[in-house]
Specification:
mainly alpha; 171 residues; single chain
Length: 171
């Protein structure tokens, strides 16, 4: 990220916060949007990456999930309403972070909130994944969203703390 040498430290920090926060917001939005066409996505994924003749756990898992989603769509399509609400939750959480874009110091609590949510992804995925029979490799993939999501939030929190110190210091 090239930064103009004429920018003040505060301007640089604000710019970094905006960039990382937009990345986080867009990531949340995309993650939510992918929950809506779930059956189509899984079908394409299994067609392109799963080999029915393979004994690999990933191939078998993708094919199994694809078949299950097809069965649900044929017999109980209303169950997909749950993933529509999952998407809505992602969109609303992303929208909440606009407050931090507008005033990162005043709304720095959002970074802590987001980091807590990211940390809770890990036990949630392992506990409920085990209860629902989700293979361990898939639970690790789910956990990666919390770990990856925490990176921009940690950086933003660090930059906001520095920005707060710089803003309250002698002028």
């Amino acid at each position: 990220m090239a930064e103009n040498s004429t920018m003040t430290r505060e301007e640089i920090l604000r710019r970094r916060i905006r960039v990382w926060l937009w990345l986080f917001i867009v990531g949340l939005f995309i993650s939510g949007a992918t929950a809506i066409p779930l059956q189509t996505e899984l079908h394409l994924l299994s067609q392109n990456f799963a080999d029915p003749t393979s004994s690999s756990l990933m191939s078998q898992w993708l094919l199994n999930v694809d078949r299950a989603l097809g069965d649900v769509a044929a017999t109980h399509p209303f169950l997909f309403y749950g993933t529509d609400w999952l998407a809505f939750g992602h969109f609303i959480i992303a929208l909440v972070f606009v407050g931090a874009l507008l005033d990162p110091i005043r709304n720095k609590w959002l970074f802590t909130f987001g980091l807590i949510a990211c940390a809770l992804v890990v036990p949630y995925a392992f506990v409920f994944g085990a209860v629902r029979g989700i293979p361990i490799f898939w639970r690790v993939i789910d956990c990666s969203f919390g770990v990856i999501g925490a990176i921009p939030l940690l950086l933003c929190r660090r930059y906001v703390n520095e920005l707060e110190l710089a803003s309250s210091g002698p002028k």
